[in-house]
């Protein structure tokens, strides 16, 4: 495939932000990339600076990029529900912006009372299942509770290849649940902790299809966008034609020095406030916890951004507009 530009197929102008409010977690999974932070509890103690700078960020994108919808995902890698300002923050955003969707990635360990207080603030919940630590009965109760409340929630079972039989046993236990919430499985082979060559044939076959259970048909309609195969077009100048891009077509292409729109649409903010594109490339010194945040947010840095990497860690799943310089 030879491409000169990538053009995403999208209905609306969306700003998607992954936000890691804390890197502290109550689980200590052996494969966790946050393992070095277990003895530290890190989050910004000044809540007002977090809230006000998020407002600055949203207003900046609305004004400069005509954003119609914001999706803010409170991410796990750290357990976001342990952030002390979780409730106030989500409630304030919901009351202030009618075009924001709040998503949560959590290990699901909070009590049913906690979920009862918070579920109405959340538009989508992903509960990760970690065989070393998760209490399976409690986890199923939480997903059943959210299902009854009609919240979009799904199971993300981590398949630890070093602990395969136990994970598989948990998979069959999860499938045997009261309600048919969605189940995805995720291989941990993408982390540096595992050698892909160590996968057995059984593991490779099992992981080929990551979506193990679909929800009931009326709920699938809500999620059609997630299942779409074609996410973008590409333009081939030699053929002077546009072509439809399939799911994995972007894998392995180098976009180094291409103009990339990642900073217009997909951001990542870590537990120490560093802002980047969600491929980790981007702003040189933009920090959400800084009192100079608003003055450093400049559309020139966003509009003229060129990819510095040989490999794209983002394009494979999320097709972002880009063009050869
Ligand atoms: S639940 Fe997630 S963040 Fe917590 S230790 Fe496990 S992998 Fe890390
Ligand atoms: S790595 Fe980032 S900057 Fe480079 S092409 Fe991919 S999304 Fe764009």
Which descriptors apply to this entry?
single chain; 325 residues; alpha/beta; TIM Barrel; 9-stranded mixed β-sheet; 5-stranded antiparallel β-sheet; 11 helices; 29% helix; binds iron/sulfur cluster
What would you say this structure looks like, in words?
The protein is α/β, with parallel strands linked by helices and 325 residues long. It is built from 11 helices and 14 strands. The protein has helices spanning 47-65, 86-96, 112-118, 136-148, 164-175, 201-208, 217-222, 224-227, 262-265, 293-296, 299-303; strands spanning 5-8, 14-19, 69-74, 100-106, 124-129, 153-159, 182-187, 211-213, 232-236, 241-245, 259-260, 266-269, 275-277, 322-323. It is globular, with a radius of gyration of 20 Å. The protein starts with a strand and ends with a strand. The model has no long low-confidence stretch (mean pLDDT 88). Residues 25, 27-29, 32, 34, 76-79, 107, 128, 130 line the site of one iron/sulfur cluster.
Uncertain spans = none
What is the residue-averaged pLDDT?
A: 88
| Number of helical elements | 11
Radius of gyration equals: 20 Å
Q: Any ligands, ions or cofactors bound here, and which? A: iron/sulfur cluster
Within CATH, the superfamily of the domain at 13-227 carries the name Aldolase class I
Measured by DSSP, the beta-strand proportion falls in 15-25%
As a percent range, the share of helical residues equals 25-40%
Spatial gap, N to C terminus: 18 Å
Total strands: the figure is 14
- What's the CATH first level of the domain at 13-227? Alpha Beta
Specify the CATH architecture of the domain at 13-227: Alpha-Beta Barrel
The structure class reads alpha/beta
| Adjacency order of strands in the biggest sheet | 8-7-6-5-4-3-2-12-13
Major β-sheet profile = 9 strands, mixed
Can you write the helix and strand succession as a string? EEHEHEHEHEHEHEHHEEEHEEHHE
Shape: globular
Oligomeric state: single chain
Kindly report the CATH topology of the domain at 13-227. TIM Barrel
